[in-house]
Each structure stands twice: as structure tokens, then as C-alpha cells.
Amino acid sequence: MYRCITSALKNSNTTVGDISYINAHATSTSVGDLAEIKALRKLLRFVPKKQNKLYISSTKGLTGHCLSMASVLETCICMLSIRYGFIVGAANISNLDKNALNLNIIRKSLTCSVSTVINTSSGFGGSNTCLVFKKLQ
User: pLDDT per residue over 65-115, tens digit each?
Assistant: First the structure.
């Protein structure tokens, strides 16, 4: 997942410091979530110290896992976030995994300026994708 994210950032001429929001795949499976948490922790080492915290959430707590449609639905939500200036909070988290502590995982939706979003997805068999969306200037 880390290689996937960094490749998408490189191909889109985007730095980690440009990211406003990460829409995580986050299926609530221990193996999958831990792998994604490790990738995000590794990525976030490169966030400039002066940057405000980067927001992370997943929409699956609200929509459920739509299997092959999950990344399409999440892509639409990411684009709407940029257009209308909001970030959907990660719903239905009662206990945050200890490995995810200190990540800025938001649980309530926010109204804020969103300029660059990455959307991560994982598929059966180990396939990973990461899409980068930027606000048009």
C-alpha cells in the first residue's frame, strides 16, 4: 500500500504536504487495517512539521462495503469533498485500534477547505490502488 500511495503521489506531481485528506480503505479487518495503518504511518513521516494535521477517515462505516463498487462510491465522495468543502467522519468506531492512535482519524464530519485528497482501496488477492484528486485552480 505504501508503494502504491507514493507512486500515485509521484505520478500526480503531488507531495505528502499537499494532502488535505486521506479516505482510507479501512474495512475493519485486522489484517487489512493494520497493513493500511502501517503504510499511512510510514507516509506521514514525510508530512512537514508546520502543516496542520492531515485528516483521515473512511466512509465504509456509513455506506457499508460495496465490494467492487466501494472505490467508485468513495471516489465520488472524495470529489464532492473537494467541491463542497467537507470531510466525512469515520462513523461507528467505538474503540480505535491501538496501532491507529495518534493518526488524525476524524469521527465527526468537518466543514473545511479540501484541496487534495487521496483515496486508497485494496482488493482481493492483494491488489492496491490509490487515486489522487486535486481542486482545480
Answer: 767 777 889 999 999 999 999 999 988 888 888 888 888 889 999 999 999
Question: In terms of residue numbers, what domain contains 74?
Answer: 2-134
Q: How many domains does the chain have?
A: 1
CATH number for the domain spanning 118: value is 3.40.47.10
E-strand ranges in 73-123 read 86-87, 110-111, 116-122
User: Where would I find the H helices in 48-124?
Assistant: 60-63, 70-84
Q: Is 24 exposed, middle or buried (0-12, 13-18, 19+ CB in 10 A)?
A: buried
Of the candidates 80, 66, 91, the residue with the CA atom closest to the CA atom of residue 114: 80
C-alpha cell recorded at residue 88: 466525512
Asked whether the beta carbons of 74 and 11 are under 8 A apart, the reply is no
